[in-house]
Amino acid sequence: MRIIYFDIDSLRPDHLGCYGYDRPTSPTIDSIAQDGVRFDRYYCASSPCVPSRSCLMSGRFGIRNGMLSNHGAGAQFNINAQAYGGPYPDSEMFPRQLKANGYDPVCFSNFADRHYATWFMCGWSEFHSPNMKCGAETAEEVNAKVLPWLQEHATREDYYLHINYWDTHRCYKMDASLAERFDDYPVTQSWPDDDAIAAQQGLTGPFTPHGQFKNDESTYPLMPGSISNRQDFEKLITGYDTSISYVDSHIKEVLDELDRQGVLDEAVIIISSDHGDSFGEHGIYSDHVNVDECIHRIPLIIRWPGLTVPDSCSSAFMYNVDYAPTICDLLDMPLPKEWDGKSYKKNVMSEDDEGREFLVWDSGLYTVQRAVRTKTHLYIRNYDSWEFNNWESEELYDMLDDPYQTRNIAHEHSEIVQKCRGIMDDWVAEQMAKPHGCPQDPLEAVLRERGLKN
């Protein structure tokens, strides 16, 4: 079995054609979805970049693996290690689990360099840092390393190939002429309109309307200097969509090489991301600073020949901590006992639509927040707003009627707030009671580092 995993940074599913988007951003990705299964309610358990990938690779929640931030007190990776011989098998990392069971995991990514995340390198048979640009490299530069590898190794048996593209992470640096493909496709998303943008002009903090660039001056042709009106917003959206299109074309290069080698039809193709980005939600544009739905909801597309039902969709609630258990289960590998994730093998096979009853997720890089997502609502507990001036201590949103989270209804629905508080507190207690976790909730460690908790 040959498995290719495309890890596309900062990718919102609602900007992909296969998730209903009406601009031609992703023809290659859409073609994979047509042959596989699309997961519609798949979320990262912690954000942003480092916490999310720690959940993906460890199969454990950030509250247990120590990672709720990109650096500092909330970025102390915890693994149940022996004095000699590496981690205990029951708390194994995903690449090591693959390797221990006969697969060669191979990675092309500058993620470890970008964030000094040495734990991310554990277990790979081959780990390739494409260059020294630490996440500023283009998809073309990544493929300059990936394609020669495929030319030599594509026909090998039993490998797992992880390819990481960064172009969809701000800032959008590709040639502005690539945006011409959208000239006949206007931005049809009606929110935020000019009134909503005008109401956001007094917000403070990075990535707010006037926190985009110093002095509101952008050196990137595809990005406005500020978000002062609807025209600025549409320019930013087109820049983001262009970056997705750029990555999509380089995914096609990889698939074309697999096809030339005669192995594409039988290869497993998986496409996902670490987190999404805000485009107006809570007044944030083109970054990921909080626990909003648009940050934690991520795409997951799996084409598994012989298993997936073409062009199918699962609406099961899933985390990215469930990814490693699901793949290992599909490969008939044992699941480490200390993984928090659950296998959703049946969902990949479209046999049913089982999922979690609720999700709890968190973030600790900019804001310090934890959230509960039910099937209908998103509850947010805000411990530290950092430099932002538009957060309340508790927020509640009706995600069916208000998907952009424009109206906090916490004061109107105390019974829902109380229920979500209980879910969150019980979940935290459950995680902290598990063996071999962190000695303290890393969220609290971040607050202590900031002088907000004794």
In summary, what is this structure?
The protein has 13 helices and 17 strands. By secondary structure, it is α/β, with parallel strands linked by helices. An eight-stranded mixed β-sheet has the order 6-5-7-1-8-11-2-12, with helices on both faces.
Would you write up a description of this structure?
With 454 residues, this protein is α/β, with parallel strands linked by helices. The chain folds into 2 domains: 2-174 and 233-348, 3-Layer(aba) Sandwich (Alkaline Phosphatase, subunit A); 359-449, 2-Layer Sandwich (Arylsulfatase, C-terminal domain), CATH 3.30.1120. Helices cover 29% and strands 16% of the residues. It contains 13 helices and 17 strands. The protein has helices at residues 27-34, 49-58, 62-65, 94-100, 111-115, 139-153, 194-199, 230-260, 293-296, 323-330, 345-348, 414-433, 442-449, and strands at 2-8, 37-39, 42-43, 46-47, 104-108, 126-128, 159-165, 268-272, 278-279, 285-287, 300-303, 312-314, 318-319, 359-363, 368-373, 377-384, 394-398. The strands form 4 sheets. It has an 8-stranded mixed sheet, with helices on both faces. A 5-stranded mixed sheet has the order 4-14-15-16-17. A hairpin with a 4-residue loop joins strand 14 and strand 15. Helix 6 packs parallel to helix 8 (230-260). The longest helix is centred in the middle third of the chain and has 31 residues, at 230-260. The model has no long low-confidence stretch (mean pLDDT 96). This is Sulfatase. Residues 4-332 form the Sulfatase N-terminal domain. InterPro entries: Alkaline_phosphatase_core_sf (IPR017850), GAG_Ulvan_Degrading_Sulfatases (IPR052701), Sulfatase_N (IPR000917). It comes from Rubellicoccus peritrichatus.
